[in-house]
């Protein structure tokens, strides 16, 4: 019984680490896609997203 639990925990940890690395990859990918993102609005010849790229919007506005 204990060995089963240990195996399950190990699998869970592996899954978690995979999810973490995947999210990290996804975030960097998203950051690189800021140039042509989905659901975006133009701000002075620059694109910015309403969702995750709000900070990019602000920097684009402040840089001008």
Key attributes of the depicted protein:
2 strands, rod-shaped, single chain, two-stranded antiparallel sheet
Describe the structure.
This protein is α+β, with helices and mostly antiparallel strands and 64 residues long. It has a domain at 32-63. Helices cover 64% and strands 12% of the residues. It has helices at residues 2-32, 54-63; strands at residues 40-43, 46-49. The chain has a two-stranded antiparallel sheet. The longest helix is centred in the first third of the chain and has 31 residues, at 2-32. It is rod-shaped and about 45 Å long.
The gist of it:
The chain is of the alpha+beta class.
Low-pLDDT residue intervals, each spanning 5 or more residues: none
* Number of alpha- plus pi-helical segments: 2
Taking all Cα atoms into account, the compactness measure Rg is: 19 Å
Percent range for helical residues? Answer: 55-70%
Head-to-tail CA distance between termini: 63 Å
Element layout with pairings:
Elements (H helix, E strand, L loop, with lengths): L1 H31 L7 E4 L2 E4 L4 H10 L1
Antiparallel strand pairs: 1-2
């Amino acid at each position: 019984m204990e060995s089963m639990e240990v195996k399950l925990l190990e699998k869970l940890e592996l899954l978690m680490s995979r999810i973490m690395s995947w999210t990290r990859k996804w975030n960097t990918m998203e950051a690189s896609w800021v140039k042509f993102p989905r659901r975006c609005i133009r701000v002075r010849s620059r694109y910015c997203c309403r969702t995750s790229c709000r900070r990019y919007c602000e920097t684009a506005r402040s840089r001008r």
